[in-house]
Amino acid sequence: MSEKLNQLKEILGEVSDLGHAASVLGWDQNVNMPPLGGEARGQQLATLGKIAQEKFISDQVGKLLDDLKNEFAPGSDEADLIRVTSRNYEKAKRVPSEFIAEQAIVTTKAFEAWVEARGKSDFSIFRPHLEKVVDLVHKYISFFPAGNHPYDTLLDDYEPGMKTSEVQEIFSGLRVKQVDLIKKIRAAKQVKDDFLHKKYNEKKVWDFGEAIITKFGYDWNRGRQDKAPHPFETTFSINDVRITNRFEPGSPLSTLFSAMHESGHAMYEQGINPAYERTPLEGGTSLAVHESQSRLWENLVGRSLPFWEHFFPEIKKAFPAQLDGVSVKSFYKAINKVEPSLIRVNADEATYNLHIMLRLELEIGMVDGTMKVKDLPEIWNTKMKEYLGITPPNDAMGVLQDIHWSGGSIGYFSTYALGNLVSAQLWEKINKDIKDLDEQIRRGKFDALLAWLHEKIHVYGHKYDPQDIVQKVTGSKIDSAAYVRYLTKKYTDIYGL
Ligand code: MG
Questions:
Q1: Separation of 356 CA from ligand 1 center, angstroms?
Q2: For 124-141, what is each residue's pLDDT tens digit?
Q3: Candidates 159, 262, 282, 363; catalytic one
Q4: 18 pLDDT above the threshold of 90
Q5: How confident is the model at residue 10 (pLDDT cuts 50, 70, 90)?
Q6: Distance from the CA of 414 to the center of ligand 1, in angstroms?
Q7: What is the rounded distance in angstroms from the CA atom of residue 295 to the CA atom of residue 486?
Q8: Would residue 169 show up in a list of annotated catalytic residues for this protein?
Q9: For 80-137, how does the pLDDT look when each residue is reduced to its tens digit (9 = 90+)?
Q10: Ligand 1: distance of its center to the CA of 258 in Å?
Q11: How far is the CA of 262 from the centre of ligand 1 (A)?
């Protein structure tokens, strides 16, 4: 059997190599590529993707998986490798290559239309393209056996095993509590944050961010940080996990939080069992669990008071004029200011999930046919008013703000909010296991925290499904209670609720 396993691993290794080579091209596209390189790069990526797909869905892989199906003890790495690979194989086999080609064409045009529509704030430019994307999504769903809900098929690509009804149940309880919390905050006295929007030197901010993530334990011998239009993390191997970042003059310190966020993703990837390299068990288990890692470092650590009790004297030394007369407590309040805003990516912790819930409702509506694409701008604006108490002045600030739908990524959004919830669930457990965690953070010590995350989450890569690993580590499945407790405690203190 080990002969057959080796044969399978050899093919999977090559598929993984092709995927990572594509990631290098994608990274270069964002970091280095001159403007006119785009067309050739698109072709190169399509070619690599096609070769990888053909290799993976070959009859040989199917035969090997079949032969190895019952060969290994349940729970062993080999058994999980066969289980996860078989699931990916079954899914990939169902999607015809003509569909993938058609999708590439439709989404390329949809992306161009979205850029133009957003620029002109005119939904009608994007509408026919989004209608085509939704048609394709329906077609995609038709390749799979009917689930309880058509959206289940889409969600499963991002959160293996998660059901639409589970997400809806989690969100419906959470929504009421978050809307209520925001109402209370709006009635309280607003905190001051003018000093966050002064002019800060870009290089100094960048270096400060690197100093923070070095202390976190991001391994620079296996990583690097470059400038790109949007912050992201990308993995070429366990020994080459890169992040990107940007500097926005209007919000200079957001560079620090982006560095923390992306390093959270990266430390997950750097911590995965090296034995899983070049197999489907490499990489994080799901987008939500991945996001739980980035959010944990960015928010639970990076927006906490103990963290700034350590770093505030240093940041004040770096920016004495900007932070003149500012206390650590007022700095802490400022970086946690809650203000219902129109744009998801700028949203604070108290309002962020509501942006996600709105998108999920619209996606489900598009997929089950209860909402028409033409009605989305109006539905969007109505829900913004209901959840956040504000109305977008135009579609660029509303329904057109996100890139996801233009690329056909429907089913993705809820993972952001689920990641927030998981981060708080993990945090409660970590604080039970590391009793003096706050004190350690106050001393700028993060090694015990990172070791905990490595041991409980990172090392397992894709071995466990998301709900299973959350259950294994915290004792319950993904649930909103810990997040509500976290938000309530934090904002009760900051806003004196
Ligand atoms: Mg992220």
A1: 14
A2: 999 999 999 999 999 999
A3: 262
A4: yes
A5: very high
A6: 12
A7: 13
A8: no
A9: 999 999 999 999 999 998 898 899 889 988 988 999 999 999 999 999 999 999 999 9
A10: 9
A11: 6
Per-residue pLDDT for 1 more than 70? no
Fill in the amino acid letter for 270: Q
| Boundaries of every domain in the chain | 3-145, 164-495
The fold of the 164-495 domain, in CATH, is Neurolysin; domain 3 (1.10.1370)
Q: What is the pTM of this model?
A: 0.95
Pull the structure tokens for residue 51: 């070769």
